[in-house]
Amino acid sequence: MPRPLRAVGLVLFAALTAIALLLLGTPAHATPSEAELTKQIDAKSKQFDKAVQEYDKVQDQLSASKKKEKAVNKKLKPLQKKVDAAEQTVGKMAAAAYRGGKPGAVNAILSDGSASTLLDSLSLLDQLARSQSKQIAEYSKAKAALDKQKAALDTEIGKQTQAKKKLADQKKSLDKDVQKLRDLRTQAYGSPTNYNTNVDYGPAPNLPGSAGKAVDYAWAQLGKPYNMGSAGPNEFDCSGLTMMAWNAAGYSLAHSSYTQYSQTHRISRNQLEPGDLVFYSGNEHVAIYIGGNQIIHAPTYGEPVQKASVDMMPPDGYGRVG
Fold it and tell me: In angstroms, rounded to a whole number, what is the distance separating the alpha carbons of residues 230 and 240?
């Protein structure tokens, strides 16, 4: 074959090969099944839940540290004024003693006029100066102790602020991952339909007292969707639900299952009563007990606020509010 024809043939062969490859297509990754995507979402959601709970815990600790620092600063301010005033008085006395040849200056300091001679005046000034110096030493000692507390709190606040930022970044990243997986599942299989806010769950148990109010609130949220970091009125996460339930009963709980564990009194399984909190998964998850071995909780993404057995998974502890 002449060279020009040979070259044309090679070009034609390459073109046909490229077209064939385009027609055949390159191997593509198959879309995961709905069950597999849901499994991935659940796994990511648990990581996200843990990050949020840790974030809330650090936030509570940071708020407590700042409150302590505010109290220390409140004590420091008047103490510093006392130190300054005492030092100023000693300074005046020293100046008066230096002007020993001027009784008028001494009398200006000793307004009661009890000293009959300049020597007596100077002696009295020395005694007063010693007394003031002792006060300064006492004030300074107290101030040094408070300064030490403040320095420790400043260090603690710095560490907690850094931890909060790190967890906030982690939360943001995990939230994006969860949302991408949810969007992929929706695009491939449509929106999940395993909850219905129009279901009639019947009347809440008629329970007395604060616990009854907390249970009534939780019952009224049945069927509402889960959303991490939410505390109503339309969406909830686990600690947001229990926090708002007890808020309706007049009690303040933190928006963190870890902190709620520390805020409640430890009880045993056989002491469980409606309104008590049940903790799971190393205190990463919390639910409210409603009696009859049943709890109400906000499980995870794609699942609504619902009733479940208290033994849906092994409980790690039980807590009583109040």
Answer: 6
Most confident of 46-50, 138-142, 170-174, 285-289: 285-289
Could you read off the pLDDT of 155-212 as tens digits, one per residue? 999 999 999 899 889 888 888 887 788 788 778 777 655 455 566 677 788 888 999 9
Helix (H, G, I), strand (E, B) or coil at 83: helix
Place of tokens 């034609």: 12
Contact 237, 299 (CB under 8 A): no
Give the CATH number, domain containing residue 311.
3.90.1720.10
Do 182 and 298 share a domain, yes or no?
Answer: no
Name the residue with tokens 């009194």: 265
Give the DSSP H/E element, type plus range, for residue 139. helix 118-189
Same domain membership, residue 166 and residue 233? no
Q: What's the number of domains the chain is made of?
A: 2
Q: Check if the beta carbon of residue 72 is closer than 8 Å to that of residue 149.
A: yes
Q: Give, in order, the Cα–Cα distances in Å from 280 to each of 67, 178, 313.
A: 30, 22, 7
Answer yes or no: do 283 and 254 share one domain: yes
